[in-house]
């Protein structure tokens, strides 16, 4: 049973163990993506695998292509498609939030840190729920793009395989959060953000 916000904040059975201002999220992400656990080994392995896939796809595309066409599809894969994928990625975070019963969902960005985020104001999630919320965009994009790479012809395979790699690297923040929960898996943790104060808070059951 996930506790209510009031139960978390009265500090009787729970205590706050970490509070991250949104302005310091990049520091948190950089810290936890460096911590070598099976979560991060999986993440970096997938990044390398998808990079090798993109290179292999480009090498094995049959036929002659003009440089302008290669450049165009490279530009699509490295720049245009990743930018267009941002709102889709964030929307895919919203779906599992709604499933957990979140009501006050907010989408935000911090261009100084180049981060985009979805949060649910004063909504409590368990570690299992949080991991599901974090994983949905990565899993959905990866499966959809792998299918499209297989089905589409020519340089579309190249641009989409590049997008697959770039999007995976864009999931670093999600995996850093999951890594935090993994490292603290011996503790019963909950997340509850205060979107008004722009703070990401973690609580432990005492």
Observed structural traits:
single chain, 206 residues, alpha+beta, four-stranded antiparallel beta sheet, two-stranded antiparallel ribbon, 7 helices
Describe it:
The model has no long low-confidence stretch (mean pLDDT 94). A hairpin with a 4-residue loop joins β5 (189-194) and β6 (199-205). This protein has one domain. The chain has helices spanning 5-9, 25-33, 38-60, 67-99, 127-151, 154-170, 172-183; strands at residues 14-21, 105-110, 115-120, 124-126, 189-194, 199-205. The chain is elongated. A four-stranded antiparallel beta sheet has the order 1-6-5-4. A two-stranded antiparallel sheet has the order 2-3. With 206 residues, the chain is α+β, with helices and mostly antiparallel strands.
Could you describe the largest sheet, including whether it forms a barrel?
Answer: 4 strands, antiparallel
Residue-averaged pLDDT, rounded? 94
Q: Which sequence of strands runs across the widest sheet?
A: 1-6-5-4
The overall number of domains is 1
Q: Helical content, roughly?
A: 55-70%
Q: State the order of secondary-structure elements, H for helix, E for strand.
A: HEHHHEEEHHHEE
Quick overview of this protein structure:
The chain has helices at residues 5-9, 25-33, 38-60, 67-99, 127-151, 154-170, 172-183, and strands at 14-21, 105-110, 115-120, 124-126, 189-194, 199-205. It is of the alpha+beta class and 206 residues long. Strands 1-6-5-4 form a four-stranded antiparallel beta sheet. Strands 2-3 form a two-stranded antiparallel sheet.
